[in-house]
Amino acid sequence: MHQEIVINLPIEPHEVPKLRESVGWDGRYSDYPLLFERCNFWAGLRDEHNELIAFGYISGMGLQHGYMEDIIIHPEYQRKGIGEALVKSLLQEADRAGLEIVTLTYDKKHQLFYTRSGFVPSAGGVWRKG
């Protein structure tokens, strides 16, 4: 696959929920297209059949700090370097946009992936509505 990750790739509202479900996550259909209006930018990749196979975004105030979320690669395309390319593209766009800090949360099993992608593991916390 020689296609490039595209920043702010045009995406139909149903495509990200479908991709989320392909990896076993809740589709969160009500989040789209609202998410595209509220995040700083997103990135995506399509396969040769024009199907969305990769997606991720950075949100925040757009001043100094951003939050990376929903790094999703369709299961058929995982472990082929697409995730690393997606994260790299998002971080390059963050740099271009003037963000100095990008944070994210991840499952411990993904720590090596994010460390290789330039993130430094750190302590933090998560609040969830009861």
Automatic annotation (TrEMBL):
GO MF: acyltransferase activity, transferring groups other than amino-acyl groups
Ranges where the N-acetyltransferase domain occurs: 6-130
UniProt key word Transferase: yes
Key words of the record: Transferase
InterPro entries, per the entry: Acetyltransferase_Butenolide, Acyl_CoA_acyltransferase, GNAT_dom
Domain of life: Bacteria
Pfam families assigned: Acetyltransf_1
Protein known as: N-acetyltransferase
